[in-house]
Amino acid sequence: MDPQQRRTETARGPPVGETGGDVTSIFLSFGVFIAIAALVMFPSSLVHQVPEGHVGAYWRGGALLNIISEPGFHLKLPFITNYEPVQVTLQTDQVKDIPCGTKGGVMITFEKIEVVNRLRKDYVYDTLLNYGVNYDNTWIYDKIHHEINQFCSSHSLQQVYIDIFDQIDERMKEALQADCTRYAPGIEIISVRVTKPKIPESVRRNFEQMEEERTKVLIAIEKQRVAEKEAETKKIMAISEAEKNANVSMIMMQQKLTEKDSSRREADIENQMYLDRQKSLADADYYRVLKEAEANKLKLTPEFLELKFIDAIARNTKIFFGDKVPNMVLDQRLLGNFLNHSTKDKSKDENLEMATDA
């Protein structure tokens, strides 16, 4: 390109596209400068920290963003995006000094009611969109005032202060949870703790006197129960002692009966043994006599009788002389039997000799 053409292009200026690029670069550099300046001068407006147990909620131009950040460090546009940490763990809201009138027109005051609640993480956006960051003002603080007044107006002072005071916690929890489940399902009511309400001094003294009288009645009832228990205990002890004595007597009687039965069995055994022994002796004596009779029967031979006769005569120390001595000394029948037997023997011998000779 010659020098004349170069001078002409310089006089015309740079191209249109190149001029726009320079402007964008300038704005970008200016924005970076502003961001760096804001980071240096206001570091919290750009970098923020979400604590543990919370989530981050963001608003841009007053509109809630559908962005929920987890605990840790995060970035946001300074002066444009607003940030609020929202607790999603258990928290306790204390509602103090709640006045209410009972059914009878007595004004009492609940000093403190504690509500343990929790906002579920997946309902944070919907809850903040409908009720804002201070959602607990609507569904816990204001709701507690309303429910306590409703409860007191339908019950007497006696019921609120004494009779059903132990039921207030559960009733408040059920009432709060019912409305939260219907209108703000992200809010979970864990428990409600209600303190004893303040009542007028004159009424309190009456309650104290009533409680004192009731205590006296309870003491009297307890004394009566103790006396009844002591009497019942003595009765049980007496019955137990009588049963023990009866059992001991029964055991001793059973023991005596057992001893008598054992003695009877022992006597029966001894009698049976004696009977068996006497029977054995009688059988033995009978057998002896029987054998002796059989032996004597075998001995009754003429020779044996003659021998006995001779022995008897020989042992006689007296000798009689005269014609009638045989009648006195000798047994004629025995002698006759002996002679007959001798004659028969002689006849048998003679017949035997004759048979032998033939």
From TrEMBL:
<dbReference type="GO" id="GO:0005789">
    <property type="term" value="C:endoplasmic reticulum membrane"/>
</dbReference>
<keyword id="KW-0472">Membrane</keyword>
<dbReference type="GO" id="GO:0032933">
    <property type="term" value="P:SREBP signaling pathway"/>
</dbReference>
<feature type="domain" description="Band 7">
    <location>
        <begin position="45"/>
        <end position="211"/>
    </location>
</feature>
<comment type="similarity">
    <text>Belongs to the band 7/mec-2 family.</text>
</comment>
<feature type="transmembrane region" description="Helical">
    <location>
        <begin position="23"/>
        <end position="42"/>
    </location>
</feature>
<dbReference type="GO" id="GO:0031625">
    <property type="term" value="F:ubiquitin protein ligase binding"/>
</dbReference>
<dbReference type="GO" id="GO:0015485">
    <property type="term" value="F:cholesterol binding"/>
</dbReference>
<dbReference type="InterPro" id="IPR033294">
    <property type="entry name" value="Erlin1/2"/>
</dbReference>
<keyword id="KW-1133">Transmembrane helix</keyword>
<dbReference type="GO" id="GO:0032991">
    <property type="term" value="C:protein-containing complex"/>
</dbReference>
<keyword id="KW-0735">Signal-anchor</keyword>
<keyword id="KW-0812">Transmembrane</keyword>
<dbReference type="InterPro" id="IPR001107">
    <property type="entry name" value="Band_7"/>
</dbReference>
<dbReference type="Pfam" id="PF01145">
    <property type="entry name" value="Band_7"/>
</dbReference>
<keyword id="KW-0325">Glycoprotein</keyword>
<dbReference type="InterPro" id="IPR036013">
    <property type="entry name" value="Band_7/SPFH_dom_sf"/>
</dbReference>
<keyword id="KW-0256">Endoplasmic reticulum</keyword>
<protein>
    <recommendedName>
        <fullName>Band 7 domain-containing protein</fullName>
    </recommendedName>
</protein>
